[in-house]
Amino acid sequence: MQIERKEKALLGARIEKEPRRFIQVISGPRQVGKTTMVQQYIRQARLPVHFASADLVAAGRTSWISQQWEAARVTLRTRGARSAVLVIDEIQKIGNWSEAVKKEWDADTLSGLDLKVVLLGSSRLLLQEGLTESLAGRFETIHLGHWSYTEMREAFAFTPEQYVWFGGYPGAAALTGEEERWKRYIVDALIETSISKDILMLTRVDKPALLKRLFELGCSYSGQILSFTKIMGQLQDAGNTTTLAHYLRLLDSAGLLKGLDKYSRHAVRQRASSPKFQVHNTALMSALEPRSFEEVSADPASWGRWVESAVGSHLLHHAEAGDLRFTYWRQGDLEVDFVLEHRGRSVGIEVKGGKKNEAPGMEAFARTCNPWKVLLVGEGGLGWQEFLELDPRILFD
């Protein structure tokens, strides 16, 4: 079943109901349906569309962008339409793409040509670099993240437990009945491809083996806080903390692994904190786990870590898509799993997925930080299954 993600309606409204104002930039990790979403829009578009993909174009061929742009202009003129749309997929594959885009966009603006532009890319970091360097004031973004539990349930009849283990990759859903085959697909087609194509081929990485080991370590410790000193102790030839922090940002930009900052009202302390590993998609943990779904789900301690990571990835998705800040809180031995901030308010969230009997950190956090509210997710609180269905912004109402 092919579903339509809500971002499709947003894209259509911006393109067809608004005047030519901004380049629309759609970013997000691999295999979450960016191209599919745009193709769904194209099939229903009322304007002529020229679609091109830079996936197989040589990196230095900026002239290719100009060629596609001119083809879109010809489409606009020959169709006799008042407007047309140019869509370029995998734009970050072209070196100096932002300069070429700026030149063509400004030329259309000067001539009054109503050619609207949509750019797609998998590497958020590289897209952001190009956008801020050359296209400031000329674009707005639509972030397409990993699939939510409700989307996977609607499209593939996933149960909450299946979502916690198999995560939100729609392309892999058909393989869940053959778990070893599913794991190989996630590793080969998603993890290795994301690291090799979205990071190593497009960014300078002096120690690629270290970056890969850092990713594997982060998946093994998702939901846990590790200082960079401890991380270096786990990795051979780990370099320095600056290198590790940079590699962690690269992994985050590819939609793989994030290092959450510690909650603080002082940004300097936040940036200097030990990271809490959080996978963007629990499928990444499961694919590298030697045990099976049945074995892990039967172990309360292990299953609790998967549930916490699923809740974390749900919060991370919403934080990336909007104006939420997502951190964790810790003071001494007391901890709150996640903290959300929105418009000056904070909400502490503690997850009990089978590994905890008490949550003393919540009282300490409430007493110390005076949050808008605290929420227990899991046994004794809001069911984690129900939490995976809600938009976290309602917590601030």
Describe the structure.
The protein is of the alpha/beta class and 397 residues long. It has two domains: 138 residues, Rossmann fold, CATH 3.40.50.300; 248 residues, no CATH class. Helices cover 47% and strands 17% of the residues. A five-stranded parallel β-sheet has the order 2-3-4-1-5, with helices on both faces. It has a four-stranded mixed β-sheet with strand order 8-9-10-11, sandwiched between helices. Strands 6-7 form a two-stranded antiparallel sheet. α16 links the parallel β10 and β11. The longest helix is centred in the middle third of the chain and has 22 residues. The radius of gyration is 22 Å and the shape is globular.
Biggest sheet details: 5 strands, parallel
Report the average pLDDT across residues: 90
Unreliable sequence segments: none
Shape type: globular
> How many separate structural domains?
2
Give me the Rg, rounded. Answer: 22 Å
The helix/strand series, from N terminus to C terminus, equals HEHEHEHEHEHHHHHHEHEHHHEEEHEH
What is the strand content?
A: 15-25%
What order do the strands of the largest sheet run in, or round the barrel if closed?
A: 2-3-4-1-5
DSSP helical segment count: 17
Would you tell me the structural class of the helices and strands? Answer: alpha/beta
Helical fraction equals 40-55%
- In whole angstroms, the N-to-C terminal distance is 34 Å
